Amino acid sequence: MSSSRGNNVEATYESQNDQRLDELHAKIRTLRGVTTDIHDDVERQNLMLDDSNDRFASFGASLSQTSQRAKRVFTGEGGIRTTRIAMLVVAAFFAFWILSKIYSWWFGS
């Protein structure tokens, strides 16, 4: 009777151990899934940061080139060309002003 009872207790302990081992495996699988998701998210964020860095570097280079061009134009290296552009802008503004006056006179009251 004692041997039968001992085997019964051992079987109970063994089934409890198996159940706890299965619970532990489930928790490990869940933890592995969470760590995989975190790793994937970090990789996506790194790619996004790299892309942003590349875009800002490109923007910085473009801004530098634009600044150098503006410096050349406004420091006198443009010479006659700058004067022609300025005169063209003034003439276009003057022409627009004249046309607006003609339009208001023609279609006005």
Instruction: Calculate the terminal CA-CA distance, rounded to whole Å.
Output: 121 Å
Rg, nearest Å: 40 Å
pLDDT averaged residue by residue: 88
**Number of extended strands:** 0
Shape: rod-shaped
Query: What structural class should be given to the helix and strand makeup?
Result: mainly alpha
Major beta-sheet overview: none
Instruction: Classify the beta-strand content into a percent band.
Output: under 5%
**What share of residues is helical?**
over 70%
The figure for the number of domains is 2
| Order of helix and strand elements from N to C terminus | HH
The parts where pLDDT drops under 50 for at least 5 residues are: none
**How many H/I helices?**
2
Organism: Pluteus cervinus
Protein name: Bet1-like protein
List keywords for this structure.
single chain; 109 residues; mainly alpha; 2 domains; 0% strand
Tell me what you see in this structure.
The chain is mostly helical and 109 residues long. It has two helices and no strands. It folds into two domains: 2-78; 79-109. The protein has helices spanning 2-74, 80-107. It is rod-shaped, with a radius of gyration of 40 Å. The model has no long low-confidence stretch (mean pLDDT 88).
Question: Topology, please?
Answer:
Layout: H1 2-74, H2 80-107
Protein name: Bet1-like protein
Organism: Pluteus cervinus
Summarize the structure.
It contains two helices and no strands. The chain has 109 residues and is mainly α. The model has no long low-confidence stretch (mean pLDDT 88).
